[in-house]
Amino acid sequence: MESVKEEIAAAAARMVVEEGLEYGPAKRRASKQLGLSARAGLPDNEQIEEAVEAYIALFCAETQPAELRALRELALQWLERLQHFRPHLGGAVWRGTATRHSDIYIQLFCDDPKSAEIALIDMGVRFEVSAVTGFQGEAVDALSVHARLPALGVNVGVHLMVYDFDDLRGALKPDGRGHKPRGDAAALRVLLHDRAP
Questions:
Q1: What is d(CA 159, CA 163) in angstroms, rounded to the nearest whole number?
Q2: CA-closest candidate to residue 149, choices 81, 70, 82
Q3: Could you tell me which of 55, 77, 167, 173 has the fewest CB atoms within 10 Å of its CB?
Q4: Within the chain, what is the greatest distance between any pair of CA atoms?
Q5: At what angle do helices 23-33 and 2-19 cross, to 10 degrees?
Q6: Does residue 75 share a domain with residue 55?
Q7: Minimal CA–CA distance to 52: which of 4, 88, 43, 153?
Q8: Measured distance CA(89)–CA(160) in Å, rounded
Q9: Which residues of 42-74 are buried (b: 16+ CB within 10 A; e: fewer)?
């Protein structure tokens, strides 16, 4: 059973790195591509994370650090623009496993959920609204923006998930590996400084 999970994790890792898929969809697609039944046990996110790190080290060691830095610099711009909403960066850009195919995921913790939409309108930013599953399993609004990343010559998705202010406390609990699942602008600046070329 463990070898099957490892096989799924390896296939999912490739999809995460090369296509920018999130862990859940990558696991399900990998399982399907490998011809496994829907009942096959899927690897947990920690296994996927380890497989992604191994894939990057093996196939993307020369390009990924610069791509990650460019994405983190763009994310920092958005965190600073939206500082009123207590923004926190999550996803692959925060974890350090992002490539040019990765989107940027920022959680906003608002006193009034509609205030973030109004702020984007006031800034002249075009966005699309959708409902996504939040980090507690609840439905939250996602405000999605297409942003240019000149350093890489690509457009990336910036997804702003709108949470209630009270959700901030639970959002900062470490994961199973002891890592914080998200960080604010100050924490991101530390990561950028620590990994400066």
A1: 13
A2: 70
A3: 173
A4: 53
A5: 120
A6: no
A7: 43
A8: 9
A9: bbebebbbebbeebbeeebeeebeebbbbbbeb
CA distances, 134 to each of 30, 108, 129, 177 (Å): 23, 12, 14, 20
Note whether 92 and 162 are same-domain residues.
yes
Residue 197 confidence (pLDDT) above 80: no
Asked if 164 and 113 touch (Cβ cutoff 8 Å), the reply is yes
What crossing angle do the helices spanning 2-19 and 45-59 adopt, rounded to 10°? 60
Same domain, 80 and 13: no
User: How many Å apart are CA 91 and CA 80, to the nearest integer?
Assistant: 18
User: CA 100, CA 60: separation in Å to the nearest integer?
Assistant: 11
- pLDDT at site 3: 86
Helix, strand, or coil (residue 165): helix
Distance (Å, whole) CA 76 – CA 6? 34
Range of the domain at 172: 64-194
